[in-house]
């Protein structure tokens, strides 16, 4: 456990030193939410903004957490520090655990700020219980995204090889996860494919929370699936992260 | 006891045979050099010895342990400095040392970090981020990281490549101090002058070890061109590069027959330049 904390502490120290990266990873979602506001202001009155805004906020946190974690881990490989960590006696589970722990803090920060800005700019108001649930869903999605980034990073030899995974994994989830349209309108195979993305479950939970008659079992089921999804990716990442060439 | 014992080690990357049946024995407590050109397989061999790479075949032991089976045990006993600096550049030298030292559970870590910083002459820049360091300073931080847990054996992959002459001399002084204190050093290099500073030397080419011997014995495989100018006559001849051969040749020119061996130790260009630089610093 102590070595997991050592890795987490180092990840956080690096983030603290890299003010540009930290600033961008917090400012980028804020800027996009502001642009969304300008875009949605052109919609006719009575348009259901919230149906899109909350899932898009979740998506941005998902995208950035995935990208940041995947790239930083690939950088560890290209710089030789990952190999050095292993030779210094760190085990796979300690490295992965440390990363998850370190990025949980960033994900919490990102989720809180993005949610607060979306609520403020779009003048949305929810009961405290619903807000806590919305935060919980976005936070769980962010953690799952960190694990997804970690898993994908094991297939990339350099930073550039992370980018092909964006059109392969991140962009399809925009179209198939119910972010833009109800997935039931999609062909059956596309609807099923949508179930493969974590954003699908986050969106399902969010639509339920902000809907008129929320069913708590649907929300909790989706959150449980997100937890399971994260744990599954964590297991995969710990198997694919190689400590020996 | 031998620090390293390797028999028939092979490693293939796709179509490239990086190691082709390497046999090697390294006794403990010495500086062992691995000399070879770029692409000779030096880093591959070192990675196999530190357990970062799985060879295709062969038997290999480091400090009596199998680098893959006894990974955890071995990693506590060895230090490794990779060819690239492999540091967190946005962290300071001290923070890098603290991180890698924590992995080994070094007792009194802060004190040990201070000692390692002093040993590698980095105290004045210890709290500066590594990205602002010169290549030589980064190499020293990397070396300090490898030394922190006082390993029994150190693997240094081209530790002085791209390092200026002054730092190179200082680095080799550090290596000798470590060897005198009982640490076994396994150092890869492609620099001939450095190879001469090792106690034993292996020459590697395209994944094969060509020869293992002392640097002096390897030098004796060469020939020396001797030019003698006597009155108006100049004669030139090739002789074996041994102290005895030189004395024998000079006997025919009247050298006292009781002198059996003659060795010249001319300064290298590096030593001459360093001395000039030191003189210039003193005069300023």
Describe this structure in words.
The complex is a heterodimer of chains A (245) and B (284). Chain A has 245 residues and is an all-alpha fold. Chain A has one domain (2-243). Chain A contains ten helices and no strands. Chain A has helices at 2-17, 19-40, 50-79, 81-87, 92-121, 128-153, 165-176, 188-194, 198-210, 216-240. Chain A is 77% helix and 0% strand. The model of chain A has no long low-confidence stretch (mean pLDDT 89). By secondary structure, chain B is an alpha/beta fold. Chain B has two domains: 2-214, Rossmann fold (3-Layer(aba) Sandwich); 219-282, no CATH class. In chain B, strand 8 (200-205) and strand 9 (208-213) form a beta hairpin. In chain B, helix 3 (93-104) packs across helix 4, helix 3 (93-104) runs parallel beside helix 5 and helix 4 (109-119) packs across helix 5 (135-147). The radius of gyration of chain B is 22 Å and the shape is globular. At the A-B interface, helix 1 and helix 4 of A face helix 2 and helix 3 of B. Chain A: The chain crosses the membrane at residues 21-40, 52-74, 95-120, 132-155, 162-181, 218-237. Chain A: Keywords: Cell membrane, Membrane, Transmembrane, Transmembrane helix, Transport. Chain A: Belongs to the ABC-2 integral membrane protein family.
């Amino acid at each position: 456990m102590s070595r997991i904390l050592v890795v987490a502490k180092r990840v956080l120290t690096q983030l603290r030193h890299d003010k540009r990266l930290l600033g961008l990873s917090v400012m980028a979602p804020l800027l996009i939410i502001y642009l969304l506001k300008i875009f949605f202001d052109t919609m006719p009155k009575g348009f259901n903004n919230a149906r899109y805004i909350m899932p898009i906020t979740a998506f941005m946190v998902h995208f950035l957490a995935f990208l940041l974690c995947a790239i930083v881990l690939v950088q560890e490989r290209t710089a030789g520090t990952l190999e050095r960590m292993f030779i210094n006696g760190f085990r796979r589970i300690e490295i992965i655990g440390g990363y998850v722990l370190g990025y949980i803090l960033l994900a919490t920060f990102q989720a809180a700020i993005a949610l607060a800005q979306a609520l403020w700019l779009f003048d949305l108001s929810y009961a405290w219980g619903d807000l806590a649930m919305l935060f919980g869903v976005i936070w769980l999605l962010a953690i799952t995204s960190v694990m997804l980034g970690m898993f994908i990073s094991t297939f990339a030899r350099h930073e550039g090889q992370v980018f092909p995974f964006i059109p392969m994994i991140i962009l399809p989830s925009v179209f198939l996860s119910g972010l833009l349209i109800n997935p039931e309108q999609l062909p059956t195979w596309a609807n099923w494919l949508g179930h493969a993305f974590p954003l699908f479950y986050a969106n399902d939970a969010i639509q339920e929370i902000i809907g008129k008659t929320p069913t708590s079992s649907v929300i909790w089921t989706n959150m449980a699936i997100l937890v399971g999804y994260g744990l599954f990716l964590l297991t995969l990442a710990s198997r694919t992260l190689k400590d020996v060439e | 006891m031998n620090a390293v014992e390797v028999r028939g080690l092979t490693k293939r990357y796709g179509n490239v045979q990086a190691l082709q049946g390497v046999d090697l024995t390294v006794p403990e407590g010495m500086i062992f050099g691995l000399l070879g050109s770029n692409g000779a397989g030096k880093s591959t061999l070192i990675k196999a010895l530190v357990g970062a790479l799985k060879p295709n075949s062969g038997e290999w032991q480091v400090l009596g342990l199998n680098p893959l089976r006894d990974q955890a045990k071995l990693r506590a006993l060895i230090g490794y400095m990779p060819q690239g600096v492999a540091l967190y550049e946005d962290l300071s030298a001290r923070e890098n040392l603290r991180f890698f030292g924590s992995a080994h559970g070094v007792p009194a870590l802060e004190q040990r970090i201070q000692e390692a910083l002093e040993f590698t002459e980095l105290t004045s820049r210890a709290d500066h981020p590594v990205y602002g360091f010169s290549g030589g300073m980064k190499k020293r931080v990397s070396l300090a990281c490898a030394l922190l847990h006082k390993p029994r054996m150190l693997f240094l992959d081209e530790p002085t490549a791209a390092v200026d002459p002054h730092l190179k001399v200082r680095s080799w002084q550090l290596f000798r101090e470590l060897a005198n204190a009982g640490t076994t050093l396994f150092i890869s290099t492609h620099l001939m002058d450095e190879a001469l500073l090792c106690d034993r030397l292996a020459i590697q080419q395209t994944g094969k070890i060509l020869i293992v011997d002392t640097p002096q014995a390897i030098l004796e495989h060469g020939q020396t061109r001797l030019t003698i100018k006597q009155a108006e006559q100049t004669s030139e001849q090739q002789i074996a590069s041994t102290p005895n051969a030189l004395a024998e040749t000079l006997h025919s020119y009247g050298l006292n027959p009781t002198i059996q061996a003659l060795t010249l130790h001319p300064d290298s260009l590096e030593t001459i330049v360093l001395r000039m630089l030191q003189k210039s610093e003193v005069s300023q």
